[in-house]
Amino acid sequence: MIILTTEYEKLLDRAFSKLPGLSEEHADFKMPEADSIIQGNNTLLRNFSQIAEVARRDRKEISNYLTKELAAHITVEDQRLVIHAKINANELNSKIRKFFESYIICKECHKPDTHTESVSRGFATLVCEACGARYAVKYY
């Protein structure tokens, strides 16, 4: 019986040594950085469509959020966003990161697999498709 237990433990040790790190959390999701340039009095967000695609949200939703956060007039032209103000890249990245943290990333499982439902009285329900969590978020 002792011999079997020792062999079993060796087999377990061997199996665990071949597994990837169990304590490490690997995330495939990477929040996009803003690719922006300032032209005159306007700021162009050149990778706006890519950001909307990664967020899985309508471009109008994101532009409405940025309009309120940046307090600037915004228009969408083709694949880019035109902000009618001079906004530096750090501030723009900060606002995009805040959008993802508030309206995209699940507060429970920290995955980006979410969508919004039932907007009423200034709040929307954020639903996580990965873990099933549901909670209210302030609608932009």
How would you describe what is shown here?
The chain has 140 residues and is α+β, with helices and mostly antiparallel strands. It has helices at 2-18, 48-55, 59-70, 89-103; strands at 36-39, 42-45, 74-77, 80-83, 114-120, 123-128, 134-138. The chain folds into 2 domains: 30-100, Defensin A-like; 105-140. 37% of the residues lie in helices and 24% in strands. The strands form 2 sheets. The protein has a 4-stranded antiparallel sheet, covered by helices on one side. Strands 5-6-7 form a 3-stranded antiparallel sheet, with no helix packed on it. The longest helix is centred in the first third of the chain and has 17 residues, at 2-18. The model is unreliable at 22-26 (pLDDT under 50).
CATH topology annotation of the largest domain? Defensin A-like
- What is the element string, with H for helices and E for strands? HEEHHEEHEEE
- Largest beta sheet: what is the strand line-up? 1-2-4-3
- Count of domain modules: 2
Strand count = 7
Notable traits:
140 residues; alpha+beta; four-stranded antiparallel β-sheet; three-stranded antiparallel β-sheet; 7 strands; 24% strand
Topology:
Blueprint: H1 2-18, E1 36-39, E2 42-45, H2 48-55, H3 59-70, E3 74-77, E4 80-83, H4 89-103, E5 114-120, E6 123-128, E7 134-138
Antiparallel strand pairs: 1-2, 2-4, 3-4, 5-6, 6-7
